[in-house]
Known about the structure:
- By secondary structure, this protein is an alpha+beta fold.
- 28% of the residues lie in helices and 34% in strands.
- It has helices spanning 11-18, 36-48, 93-108, 123-131, and strands at 2-5, 53-59, 64-74, 77-84, 113-116, 135-144, 147-157.
Amino acid sequence: MLLRDVEPADLDAYVRMRCDPVMMSELGGPQPRERIAGQLARDLETVRDDSAWIKMIVAGASARVAGTVTLYRQEGISEIGWMVLPEFQGRGLASQAVRTVLDLARADGRWGPIHAFPSTTNAASNAICRSAGFSLVGQEERTFAGRVFQTRHWVVDTSAHA
Ligand SMILES: CC(C)(COP(=O)(O)OP(=O)(O)OC[C@H]1O[C@@H](n2cnc3c(N)ncnc32)[C@H](O)[C@@H]1OP(=O)(O)O)[C@@H](O)C(=O)NCCC(=O)NCCS
């Protein structure tokens, strides 16, 4: 598994992740196809100005995009999110990619406590939080794309002193 910054050629992978009802079932539902190019352009801009990390997970020898891990600041906190395409799921890729991004964040030093809010029913994502060293803060209602979800709130401190 490798991680690299998002590139303009990732539009197809974005569409496959964000317009798929199953992939998006716990992230507010599928997004309209016509919004994806704009989303990618905004993500490319955040990578250029280094205000967020938008990492693509590249699966071993195939060099194919398997998913993404994003780390960004929102409402005054650092937040992480992840997705892995169906044909690459169940191989430990999300788990490995999240741990790698946390290691990069510790080395970088700017992100401090990193929060994650997987839906309470997202067993794999809650397992990732647990095994990657996050602590459970509690349960919270959160709104994604206009829909309200019950989520678990997890946090891991990547500050130098942690
Ligand atoms: C959630 C998702 C990223 C998992 O990706 P993945 O590459 O298949 O995950 P992994 O193979 O790394 O497995 C992650 C952990 O979940 C566990 N797991 C996987 N499927 C599971 C299931 N159905 N029930 C319980 N645990 C499960 C694995 O054992 C592993 O545990 P570990 O970290 O303790 O070893 C992927 O299914 C996905 O993108 N789903 C749609 C989008 C989404 O829900 N994103 C997350 C929003 S917070």
